[in-house]
Amino acid sequence: MMDGEMRQEQRVLLPLEGVEHIRRVMHEDQEYWSVVDVVGFLTEAANPSKYWHTMRSRMQSEGAQETLSQIIEIPMKSADGRLRKTDAMNRATLLRLIQSIPSPRAEPFKLFLAEAGEETLTEIERQNDTLEAMRDHYRQLERDEEWITARIIYIATRNAWTSEIQIRGVDHTLSIAKLTSLLNLRTFGLTTAHHKELKGLSPRHNLADHKTRMELILSSLAEETATGLHQKNDSQGYDEIERDVREAGDTAADARRAVEQRLGEPVVSSQNFLVSRRKRVSQLSKRKKPVTSQIEEKGQQPEAQQTLFDDLSE
């Protein structure tokens, strides 16, 4: 998920004219490249799709099944702006394919792929470091490991969903917020604003940081389902995306009702983590002597002072 997360990548590493037009995406922690785009770059053919079709038929007749079996279809944005399934290869398979294409660009492109591979590994390592930092952050907030795992999975599905709708034409912040609230409404029967109100949160609080583990799991299910529907329906624009969101929310709501029936209690909870935060603030304040105590020792009355945490004492 975090996968499960694909994002459109178009970066130029080594200066190599034309390579920026080759589409590539991250899929299951690997970078996949559009075969047609690579063929077009190497051969400079007028019709790269036809060239690849002929080449693929020849490879089949020559017994190159191992290489061909590594090809997968991945949705990538086409010239008309719509996502269409495209033959794609990872870097290792692509290097084998290049051997079959006589081109003066082959060697420079191999060097480009090598550097791209190093960059991808560095990016994955950076993401792993970020994940561990995120876990440490929530541990400091006294969240248990099961909750932290659910929260991180939700972050991954959330990022994947928002990336998906952005490349499908919904990239305005307010539109994304409206769809998020609609998805929450269809899943839990509450808009995000009402869900916060139930939990005693203010508008500035992040709702996901105060959801229970079950609420996070169902939120992940809703957004993952929405992503799948966008891809299945090739949805474009707000109206089509909204239709998918309604269906995804209804699917997650069915799962919620089934869980509630089994557990005999509602999934939607008023629980929040504000109390534990106030507790931590209190513990921190006890580590050093308060100024008010020093004043009282001198027989003076302490003055009322506002603190950064006054808004937590609701």
Per-chain topology:
Layout: E1 8-9, E2 24-27, E3 30-34, H1 35-43, H2 48-61, H3 65-68, E4 72-77, E5 83-90, H4 91-98, H5 106-140, H6 145-167, H7 173-188, H8 192-198, H9 213-233, H10 237-263, H11 274-286, H12 291-297
Antiparallel strand pairs: 1-2, 2-3, 3-5, 4-5
Helix pairs in contact: 1-2, 5-6, 6-9, 7-10, 9-10
Can you put this structure into words, describing what you see?
By secondary structure, this protein is α+β, with helices and mostly antiparallel strands. The chain has three domains: 114 residues; 130 residues, no CATH class; 31 residues, no CATH class. The protein is 59% helix and 8% strand. The chain has twelve helices and five strands. Strands 1-2-3-5-4 form a five-stranded antiparallel beta sheet. Strand 2 and strand 3 form a beta hairpin. Helix 6 packs parallel to helix 9. The protein is elongated, with a radius of gyration of 26 Å. The two termini are 37 Å apart. The N terminus and C terminus are likely disordered.
Task: List the defining traits of the structure above.
5 strands, elongated, alpha+beta, single chain, 3 domains, 12 helices, disordered N terminus, 59% helix, 314 residues
